[in-house]
Q: What sequence folds into this?
């Protein structure tokens, strides 16, 4: 039987591809070799013939993103469990994991697209994704500035009026600034960071794929270092002096973008390599384990403030500026997770509920923000004393809502929009 030498598609020798074929793009064998099994039994067949722009998705990454969403929900829901559940693995939070995993997946998916379809297609995909995120942010802002603000005032909930303080002081500046991603209230400040990083990622990925990543990583590290010395605040003060921008620095969002870009670029680089993650030697693994254990014990013995009354130590472990000791904590957890990953995959059951959340992480993320805002508007902040049973019921209802959203998104995806067979885990965050 003759073999096909052109990329698989619906218009190219379809009967031969359906039966058996030699090697196709991606390196699934040697030229001229026959496939050992029928292609309809091969998962890769669907991805590289019917969905040529989507590399196969790894369920363990979805499960990790699902875990990050669970931790963020526990932290953002105003219950008595919010503070204890924050940073459970040491001085590292779910936000770092979520941003890094999102960058890794972006590098993996869009890097493959750049190699397959060219740089313009990759850039268009990034911009399309950024637009979708921006529309989600506008929807959340519209809800916060209208219904949630009214409910907070009507119910006299200080958690809402505090969260939207600048909006109540200067509504016009708050609305315009929020639309421009300059004013970012608490709970609504991570998507603007994500949007900005998605907009610059096409240039970074193009530069990395064509000329190597050393320059990109070096500039990223220098920006992170400069942020530790106050570069972001200096740029803000210069901007205010030149333009008279009325938005206070603290109301521009908690995340220091010049620091968090380093975490994103590191994930983007690792994902774009399209190679397995490195194997770490014992001389690196042992110090990483000891450091991670020390940070874990410190966090749970002292609390989230590492050394009350000593601001210098707090800066070294600062979440919003990604202090040096915090970066080391994240790196040590990363080394341990990568090293123990194969063993964990063998001994742990597959966490299907977490996979469900991770596959639909954008929808679930937005839903958890909506649920947290309504909880603040009706039940108040963590300062309100409630029976433990009420807080348990609030969390149970919140997670029920998140799973309902995830299942609804998957049901819609299976409902007929796709005309070809597709495995349940798609290439991108929905």
A:
């Amino acid at each position: 039987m003759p073999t096909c030498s052109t990329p698989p598609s619906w218009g190219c020798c379809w009967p031969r591809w359906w039966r058996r074929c030699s090697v196709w793009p991606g390196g699934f064998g040697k030229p001229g070799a026959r496939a050992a099994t029928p292609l309809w039994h091969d998962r890769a067949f669907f991805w590289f013939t019917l969905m040529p722009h989507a590399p196969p998705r790894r369920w363990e990454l979805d499960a990790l993103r699902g875990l990050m969403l669970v931790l963020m929900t526990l932290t953002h829901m105003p219950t008595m469990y919010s503070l204890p559940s924050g940073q459970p693995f040491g001085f590292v939070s779910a936000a770092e994991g979520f941003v890094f995993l999102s960058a890794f997946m972006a590098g993996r998916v869009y890097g493959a697209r750049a190699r397959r379809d060219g740089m313009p297609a990759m850039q268009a995909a990034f911009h399309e994704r950024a637009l979708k995120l921006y529309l989600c942010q506008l929807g959340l802002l519209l809800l916060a500035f209208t219904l949630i603000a009214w409910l907070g005032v009507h119910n006299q909930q200080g958690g809402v009026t505090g969260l939207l303080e600048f909006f109540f002081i200067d509504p016009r500046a708050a609305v315009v600034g929020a639309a421009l991603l300059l004013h970012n209230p608490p709970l609504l400040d991570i998507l603007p960071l994500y949007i900005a990083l998605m907009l610059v990622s096409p240039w970074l990925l193009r530069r990395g794929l064509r000329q190597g990543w050393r320059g990109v990583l070096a500039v990223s590290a220098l920006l992170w270092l400069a942020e530790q010395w106050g570069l972001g605040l200096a740029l803000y003060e210069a901007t205010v002096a030149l333009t008279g921008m009325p938005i206070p620095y603290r109301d521009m969002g908690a995340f220091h973008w010049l620091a968090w870009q380093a975490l994103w670029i590191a994930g983007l680089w690792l994902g774009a390599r399209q190679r397995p993650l490195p194997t770490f030697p014992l001389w690196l693994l042992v110090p990483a384990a000891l450091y991670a254990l020390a940070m874990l014990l410190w966090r749970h013995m002292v609390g989230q403030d590492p050394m009350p009354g000593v601001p210098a130590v707090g800066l070294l472990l600062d979440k919003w500026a990604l202090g040096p000791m915090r970066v080391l904590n994240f790196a040590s957890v990363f080394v341990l997770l990568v090293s123990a990953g194969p063993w964990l995959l063998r001994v742990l059951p597959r966490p299907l509920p977490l996979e469900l959340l991770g596959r639909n992480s954008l929808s679930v993320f937005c839903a958890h923000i909506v649920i947290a805002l309504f909880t603040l508007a009706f039940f108040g902040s963590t300062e309100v004393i409630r029976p433990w049973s009420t807080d348990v019921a609030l969390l149970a209802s919140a997670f029920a809502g998140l799973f309902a959203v995830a299942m609804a998104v998957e049901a819609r995806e299976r409902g007929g929009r796709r005309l070809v067979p597709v495995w349940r885990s798609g290439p991108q965050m929905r």
